[in-house]
Model the fold of this input.
Amino acid sequence: MTTFHTPYQRLKASWSQGLRQQVTRAGLAYTATLLVVALAAFLSANNLLFLILAAMLSTLLISGFISRLGLAGLELDLVLPEHISARRKVRAAIRLKNLKRWIPSFSIHLAGAPESGLGSALYFPAIPGGSALEEAVDLYFPRRGAQRERTFQFSTRFPFGFAERRELVEARHEILVYPCLDPQPGFEALLASVSGEMEAFRRGRGDDFYRIRPYEALESARHVDWKATAHTGDLQVREFAQEQDHRVVMYLDLDVPFEAEAWFESAVECSAFLAFRLAGHGAHVRFRTQEFDVTLPEEGNIYTILKYLALVSPMGGRPPSAPDEINTFQIVFSANPKRMAALGWGTPDGRGARMLGLDAFAEKDASTKKDAFAEKDASTKKDVFAENDALTKKDAFAQKSASDSPL
Done:
């Protein structure tokens, strides 16, 4: 659901975020009372009112000083896991240290900017001087990429709540967020289909026994298993695994037009998902682009690919390269499948290769639009039901009033 903000709301939000100190309602009431006492003291020349005014002014000054002292000397450290994926909550820890040796800090609130990944604010009732507190938090990053600066905000209303004092802190840890590794609509079905095609492509004539299967037309009779044939009554053939497992070659074409950037993000997520799952199942994965080429597990691990995919961007005008291996299962992501086929990617009959073009993630886009329409429809129905309920209650009340009124 899209939220529209008026210029006044945007100005108010930016103004409140930029202020280092904001007066609260209690502070406004206290200030109004102070002005009334000051006016009465000057008009009446009453010494008691002047004493009260002096006490109120000193209380206000002390409140500001203590509030500022409480936020001084606070150090923030973010303890992060080694691997972080987009749109997946990760468990981290925030360590808050009070560098003041003897002076504690009270009633500290800690909140994060949207890019910080911290969704909820933390509250620390007291931080003793010279000590450190650690709190476990859930971080959520909506997009892949590198993040070098994250903004956090300390705030406190201690001691009297007249004003909320704020201090901004920037954490400069470099965080690399991988593409989303959770299955998106259609990714699981694609993985199952690719795994099945790889298993069929893997069958060969090596020395390791693979399975016994029914005889197929035009096959050589030297591999017929006569015992199994006699047992089943139908011709059965011994099938052997190939001497070496075929490698899976994944190619991500970076030559993407400007209007297909949304498809490119889906292709990055799908390639990360497939590479992560296939490598987890023990497959030998080679991942290629116009500028990158790595083979697992000889030249790195799966995180080598994920780190690259976290930062990859389209490179318009740079043509892809042709395949340089035979007997490999190919998975190609390209906005121009015809050009990839002309370079030699894929096979004429489609066996041993999977070409994913601009229409490959239509199911994901349709699912996203379906969810948006469903949310809008549910909101519309809710408003209609609420309106009908209100009209029904109104009619019932009017009918009751009419029946209760005297003729």
Remarks:
- The first strand starts at residue 21 and ends at 23.
